[in-house]
């Protein structure tokens, strides 16, 4: 490669999607701050559902949780009628943040700046001094409180998971999830119980991470623990389900179903991640109990654009992906079990939580490769990733885990939403 200089106009011309389509992703789409701003409008405030949390996090009237959809601070609040209501956490007066704590309990939503006060569904109840004093000041006579509530989000709960959207036109949540909703219903059969949280800042673009749980190809190559200790291997019975629009993916693997395959044997001898010599001092972390009875030991479900639900052995967690500028993102892990788990089951989940999270035996490498990838592509040079495992289009690769089909489908939906 020879050194080249380029002009501003040529640089802008270079920002066209490669002619190969969804089997390529240009590196500028991860690093360009203008793209980041467009994503906020077209994806995060666009036609998509976003995970806010669990109904178990706001069990009683007045309980609230603050979180984000993209860059927008949002609230989910339990109202008197038991409903959970998503709304933008920004006062309708002059934009102050209404709730500051991560979690809280309130009789109403009170803005400290000028005491505008909202009910638990975000409707304005009172505005301080709205009638003025001694005939002076105050709000206009035709001020109608009904027009000055918090911005309300469409909110739905599926199996205890709360999602919200800015869109009035996107399909209802379950329809939007399509075939992949089964991965939620299969797993979340009972009321949930929160076990803990873990948030990690990843110094990469949010899409570097979003591609990762859609990429089953890397699972037992990058992750030594998966292959070596047999929780997930390419030689096991496994598969992938996408919804019809290809927005969402769900991978599953059944431990203990290895089939002898010469290609696998030949490949493992080259994999640094498959090490028959390694043994665990305490193998209790591997004591998986088939709670559902379908043999699935690992299920990784990824919903466009920012949600993951995992079952890794008996550990269960949601991962909420929050972009923080084009060059970093937060990944919020919520570990959970079920309200009726016995002590032994809770202990098993707590031990196996060590598999996941920012320092987990399995997932520690994911953030590391996202950061390494971002460092390698963020130099402004023209280039693109190569996404041809299993084929080049949206259907090729079928349900095989040795395929990048789910990533090609992500880019297809992303390009549609972004008009790229
Ligand atoms: S900004 Fe909230 S009351 Fe003024
Ligand atoms: Fe991974």
Task: Please outline what is shown here.
Helix content is 22%, strand content 25%. The chain is built from twelve helices and 19 strands. The strands form four sheets. The chain has a seven-stranded antiparallel sheet, with no helix packed on it.
Can you tell me the residue ranges where pLDDT is under 50 for at least 5 consecutive residues?
none
- The CATH class assignment of the largest domain is Alpha Beta
Assign an overall shape.
globular
Mean model confidence by pLDDT: 92
What is the rounded Rg?
24 Å
Q: How many DSSP H or I helices?
A: 12
The domain count comes to 2
Distinct ligands, ions and cofactors found in the model: FE2/S2 (inorganic) cluster, fe (ii) ion
CATH superfamily of the largest domain: Naphthalene 1,2-dioxygenase Alpha Subunit, Chain A, domain 1
Largest sheet: 7 strands, antiparallel
Strand content: 15-25%
Q: Specify the helix fraction band.
A: 10-25%
Widest sheet: strand ordering: 2-11-10-5-4-3-6
Number of strands: 19
Question: Mind telling me which CATH architecture of the largest domain this is?
Answer: Alpha-Beta Complex
CATH topology of the largest domain: the name is Naphthalene 1,2-dioxygenase Alpha Subunit, Chain A, domain 1
Which structural class fits the helix and strand makeup? alpha+beta
Calculate the terminal CA-CA distance, rounded to whole Å.
28 Å
Cofactor: Fe cation
InterPro entries: Rieske_2Fe-2S, Rieske_2Fe-2S_sf, Ring_hydroxy_dOase_asu_C_dom, Rng_hydr_dOase-A
Protein name: Anthranilate 1,2-dioxygenase large subunit/terephthalate 1,2-dioxygenase oxygenase component alpha subunit
Family: Belongs to the bacterial ring-hydroxylating dioxygenase alpha subunit family.
């Amino acid at each position: 490669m020879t050194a080249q200089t380029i002009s501003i106009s040529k640089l802008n011309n270079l920002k066209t999607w490669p002619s190969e389509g969804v089997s390529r992703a240009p590196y500028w789409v991860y690093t360009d701050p203008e793209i980041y701003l467009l994503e906020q409008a077209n994806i995060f405030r666009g036609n998509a559902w976003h995970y806010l949390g669990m109904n178990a996090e706001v069990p009683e009237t007045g309980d609230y949780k603050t979180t984000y959809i993209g860059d927008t601070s949002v609230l989910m609040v339990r109202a008197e009628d038991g409903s959970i209501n998503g709304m933008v956490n920004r006062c309708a007066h002059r934009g102050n943040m209404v709730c500051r704590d991560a979690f809280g309990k309130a009789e109403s939503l009170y803005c400290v700046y000028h005491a505008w006060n909202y009910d638990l569904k975000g409707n304005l109840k009172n505005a301080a001094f709205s009638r003025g004093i001694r005939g002076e000041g105050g709000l206009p006579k035709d001020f109608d409180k009904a027009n000055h509530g918090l911005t309300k989000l469409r909110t739905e709960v599926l199996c205890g998971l709360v999602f919200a959207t800015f869109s009035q036109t996107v399909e209802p949540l379950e329809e939007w999830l399509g075939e992949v909703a089964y991965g939620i219903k299969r797993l979340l059969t009972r009321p949930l119980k929160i076990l803990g949280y873990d948030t990690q800042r990843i110094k990469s673009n949010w899409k570097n991470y979003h591609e990762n749980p859609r990429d089953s190809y890397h699972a037992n190559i990058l992750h030594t623990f998966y292959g070596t200790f047999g929780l997930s291997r390419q030689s096991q019975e496994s598969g992938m389900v996408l919804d019809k629009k290809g927005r969402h993916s769900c991978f599953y693997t059944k431990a203990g179903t290895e089939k002898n395959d010469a290609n696998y044997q030949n490949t493992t001898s080259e994999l640094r991640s498959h090490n028959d010599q390694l043994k665990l001092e305490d193998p209790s972390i591997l004591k998986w109990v088939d709670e559902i009875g379908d043999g699935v030991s690992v299920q990784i479900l990824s919903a466009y654009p920012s949600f993951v639900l995992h079952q890794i052995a008996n550990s269960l967690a949601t991962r909420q992906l929050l972009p923080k500028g084009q060059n970093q993102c937060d990944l919020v892990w919520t570990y959970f079990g079920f309200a009726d788990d016995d002590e032994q089951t809770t202990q098993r989940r707590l031990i196996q939580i060590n598999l996941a999270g920012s320092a987990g035996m399995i997932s520690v490498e994911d953030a590391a490769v996202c950061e390494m990838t971002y460092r390698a592509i963020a130099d402004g040079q023209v280039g693109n990733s190569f996404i041809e495992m299993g084929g080049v289009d949206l259907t090729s690769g079928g349900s095989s885990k040795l395929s990048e089909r789910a990533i090609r489908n992500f880019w297809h939906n992303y390009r549609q939403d972004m008009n790229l």
